[in-house]
Structures are given as C-alpha cells and as structure tokens.
Queue: 2 jobs
Job 1
Amino acid sequence: MEKNKKFKIDKLYQNYSDEIFDLAKNHSNNIFFNSSEWHASIVHKALVKYAEKDLTIFCGNMLSDISNNDEYCNYMTSFLKEDKSRTVYIIFNKYSEVFLHTKIAKIFSEFPAQVKIKTYAGEVKYKGKNVHFTVVDNRAFRFETDIEKKMAFGSFNQPDTAAALKISFDKLFYSFLTKPIFL
C-alpha cells in the first residue's frame, strides 16, 4: 500500500513538472497555480531554466531547498555563465547571514557584476497579506499569496502583470529603504 502511494505522488510530481516546464518552454500565457513547496521548487526551476535576460526576486531569504537544490543551482549557474549581460536582482525581507553559507550564495558570489542583492526590513502586501514574487524577462512571473503554504499563481507570458511587478520591485530596490548585501 505504501509503495503504491509513493508511486502516485511521484507520478503527480512528474506530471506537474512536465506541465510547468512545457508552459515555460513555450512561453505560454496560461495561468498556473502552485500549492506546496515542491510545486514552488518546480516553478522556480522552470523560471530560471527558460530565463533569457533577467530575474528579479522578492523573497524571504533563500535558505530553503527551493533555492539550494542541485537542479536549481545548475540552472542558475548556466543562466549567468551563458551571457554576461544577464542579471539577477534580489530583495530579501527576512535576511539572515546564514544565507552567505548556502549553495546559491556561493554561485551568486562568482558573478558579482551580474547579481545584486539587497535587504529590506519591511514587507510587500497584496490584499492585506504578505507576498513574495519573481519576475523573469518582463514577461513571466510567480506571485506567492500565502508564504507559509507556498500558495502562488503565475504565468510564463503575461507581460502586463510581469511589468507591474517589476516596476514595484525596482522602486523598492532603488529606494533608500533597501541596503546592499555583499557576498
């Protein structure tokens, strides 16, 4: 019985992964949803794998396995190595110096001209709730509406929504409210 349950979970994971990577590869404008940490991990991998120019990330601290698994780290390394004009801008709102010892921080430290990280002592809210978000190439986004449960929605091709999130990110990133983190 337990073996059968694991098979079903693995199959669900693979089906969700296949669907998300297909949407990303084809720059689909369909809305997708995620409702767990493993869904979030899949979506973040797809966002990085199919990014072409830039990533902007507003998140807690990048301490979880979502950002520190081998596959995500390999996609991020490839993204940054492939083209020196590519950028990653990040704002942490729950920064911890533990981040400096993570796999992803080590990767970012290899690309100081391309990766800029700041910390912010506040929160970003949507409908009264704290949110996190990622924007890729001003067209793709993932918008996390429940940080604890990793509930989010997004699309790999909705430039209007992606641009609005990017404008909000940039206003905060370049404001006096954020402080740089040096790797």
Job 2
Amino acid sequence: MAKKFQQLPRLVQVLLLLIPGVNWITEIVIRVSAVFEKASLRNILGLIFGVFIPVIAGWVDLIWVLLFKHLFLCKA
C-alpha cells in the first residue's frame, strides 16, 4: 500500500493529507503496510510518530510529500 501511495499523483497525495480525518487514516494504513513490507527502524519510528502525534505528523507529512513524494520516516 505504501508503494501505491508513492505512485499516486502528487495532487492526490496532497489532497489525502489535507483532509483531517482522512489524513490520519491514510497515514496509519500506509505506515502499517510499510512496516509489514520492510520492518526497519525508520518505518517503526514513523508508525509510532504517526499514531501518537497525529496532528503534528499530518502537517509534517504534508510538507514532506511536497518535497520528497513519500511520508516522513516511511520508506517502502
């Protein structure tokens, strides 16, 4: 799922991260799938970051997607 999110057009990624409720669900789904695909320290820290600090993580992820086209601490 994380790789599919990275293949989406950047506009769709940004729109998914702009809507508050959808943002949190999208982050959790992508981060959990990234941990299942590749259980690295970066992905596990990203999952913890996304679950426990959802508001800050949402804005950081939005900026990160604009710059690098993947979520912060989530590399698939």
